Structures are given as C-alpha cells and as structure tokens.
Amino acid sequence: MVEYRIDRHSGVATYVQIVQQTKQALRLDLLRPGDRLPTAREVVEATAINPNTVLKAYRELEREGLVEARRGLGTFVRRSLGATPADSPLRGELEQWADRARAAGLERDDVAALFTAVLDTYFEGDPT
Known about the structure:
Blueprint: H1 14-27, H2 40-47, H3 51-63, E1 67-70, E2 74-77, H4 89-103, H5 108-122
Antiparallel strand pairs: 1-2
Helix pairs in contact: 1-3, 2-3
Domain HTH gntR-type: 12-80
Protein name: GntR family transcriptional regulator
Keywords: DNA-binding, Transcription, Transcription regulation
C-alpha cells in the first residue's frame, strides 16, 4: 500500500501531491491493478490533511481511469502506468548518480533542474 508524504512547503497543491505520488507508485509497479488505495480516513490520520482533499485526489485519479471507487469497499487500482519496477537496474544506477551529485554539493533543486534538463533533451516532444 502506498504511504503519502505531504510537503506543505513545496507550493504544490496537496491533492496534486497525492495524485503524483499515486502515479509514481503505478509507474514503479508498487501499486498494481486490484490493489486498494488507503481510505481517506487512513490518509487523514497519517498526514493530517482535510478528507475532502484526499477525495478530490481520488476523483482526479478516477477521472483519468486509473482507479475506481467501489461503494463500501474502497478505491482500487484499475490499471498500471509503466513498466519500470522499483528494483530495476536503472534505479540502482540513478541512486549512485544521486549519491555522487550529493557528494558534489548539489542541492535537491539543483539535481531536479539538471535531471529535468536532461529529460527535456532526450524526451523532447514526447507527450508522456
């Protein structure tokens, strides 16, 4: 089951953070079709956010066809997003690179900007 981490200082709306983290879990195969998402109550207890925020995020995921709400049972994953398992060899290489970046004194925002620039170069025009 996914555990949401809310960064109140990121400038990103809380419901968007939930949507993004759910999509990331789907891409990494941490969530699979049939898995149940945490209930709104469970998310509220873990993160101290408004239950309506959780429901808004889940409605967005449902609108995108990624999850479905089953009355009285919860919200379940309908489909996956990617083919990159969490234990991919590429993840290990990326972790080593991130370790070197940190050792070189780069801050998180610096690494994100550098990584985004490389992604933009290699995936230019890719709608995903």
